[in-house]
Write a structure and sequence with these properties.
Rossmann fold, binds NADP nicotinamide-adenine-dinucleotide phosphate
Length: about 270
Amino acid sequence: MPERPLAVITGASSGIGAEFARQLAARGYDLLLAARREDRMRSLAAEINARHAVDIEIMPGDLANDADRHHLAEYIRNTRHFALLVNNAGFGTNGFFIDVDVESQLRMHRLHVLATLELTHAALASLAANKPSGDCGVINVASVASFGQAPTNVSYCATKTWMASFTNGLATELAMRGSPTRMQALCPGYTMSEFHDVLKMNRGAIPKFFWMSAEFVVAESLRGFERGRVFVIPGRHYKILVLLMRAIPDSWLRWFSIRLAHRRRKA
Ligand SMILES: NC(=O)c1ccc[n+]([C@@H]2O[C@H](COP(=O)([O-])OP(=O)(O)OC[C@H]3O[C@@H](n4cnc5c(N)ncnc54)[C@H](OP(=O)(O)O)[C@@H]3O)[C@@H](O)[C@H]2O)c1
């Protein structure tokens, strides 16, 4: 019997990461779930195993911490049936850069940038050595925030821009080398998850029209992955928004983002 492919998902204890676990298990992947809350990952594993006969391992750890990050990278590098990495763990901060404690900004960079870089390096090395059959590669969960900047959200936008640029660059390098490995930058807009609870954000300040479900976002990502799409922006309204953000001059974008930030702060 051929081995099932293995998907490694970071930030799998809730939201978009947990939904990746459900949808990848339904497609026949074994799973390695990584995040800090072990209890949440255990109950997710039980929920998935009630429906799908796949193997699920859990690796509790803080990926902003060097030792935990190296440990997961080693696991990926040394696992023969590894096929897909989803770099999804992330969080937001809310406040002017100068007012937010620098440690939380450093943690964000370690998680969004260093973890993505180190785990992707391990993933590409493992895929190059083992050459699994079927779709394989890396999905980096960036954001529509990758396409612009927003006051009170500067490090978040900057790290997500880095994730999108890094993904795009690697997709080009892999194509140049004739590799079948796929890279995707998933760029969602507002998605229902615990993200906004962690941020203590009032969801009511954002019109209902903008909200998407994690189920929809992940289904769009996996559909795009099967088709080899490098950038996936779920939702027609967000695709239009990104086109506009790319088309209008930076000075207009700055003016608009200040107005939006004022509205959000009032709400
Ligand atoms: N929701 C949105 O509107 C939205 C929009 C665009 C992009 N995104 C991106 O989508 C990704 C998933 O977010 P979500 O919306 O699903 O939010 P969420 O429900 O809060 O999930 C975040 C996940 O990241 C994990 N995580 C956070 N810090 C971690 C750390 N130091 N080490 C390991 N795991 C860590 C959390 O698990 P533990 O707390 O158990 O560690 C959790 O599983 C994030 O990268 C976010 O930036 C979200």
